[in-house]
Amino acid sequence: MSLILFQHPLASFCHKVLIALYENGTPFESRVIDLGNEVSRASLLRLWPIGKFPVLRDEALDSTVPETSIIIEYLDRHYPGLTPLLPLDPTDALCVRLWDRFFDLYVQEPMQAIVADKLRPEGAHDPQSVAQAQSLLCTAYGMIEQQLGEKLWIAGDALTMADCAAAPALFYAETLVPFGEQHVRLKQYYQRLLARPSFARVLKEAMPYFHLYPYHEKLPTQFRPERPHA
What we know:
Shape: globular
Oligomer: single chain
Structural class: alpha+beta
Strand content: 5-15%
Strand order of the largest sheet: 2-1-3-4
Number of strands: 4
Order of helices and strands: EHEHEEHHHHHH
Radius of gyration: 18 Å
Helix content: 40-55%
Largest sheet: 4 strands, mixed
Distance between the termini: 44 Å
């Protein structure tokens, strides 16, 4: 198989690329990376010494493609499907790229900062940084609410790369800073994302790993890991 995705089913940035692949039924091989396993981690580092996933390897074109937005644009150019993830119109494409970056930088990053703090040992927590991240998420929610307006998806009537970024970012962020009563459009948008078959498939594949998420008890009910029997 030409395309190989080095990824982990729990990782939100991997979800972003998986949504893009599933939207267009793009054939690929999944290689799950366990960063705690020396051999598995080394296989990733050989491709991308930074050591972050996902990374796409295209054997047919002899290309190694890191970084989620670049991967999706690469797929859109070299392996297009029925769902174009980046508009042809330059102005529309800029809007999609803006909101793609918005979700990565202002939803994903503060969400990950809060989760990272939870995983720190006792005495190493940083309440001020957590509060700043929570505040940034609240600001981001308000801006998303305003951007949505009457749109079906974040940049218009068609799902794009920006929505691929939005789905996993909002899925995890909502467990940390729940949407408020004022976020009516955001809540509706989130439900549309959950119902999208490509994202539903991603979440189904992540189910066996959700118990590793430190806030798994706050996930939507249908995704909470079952408690072990006594």
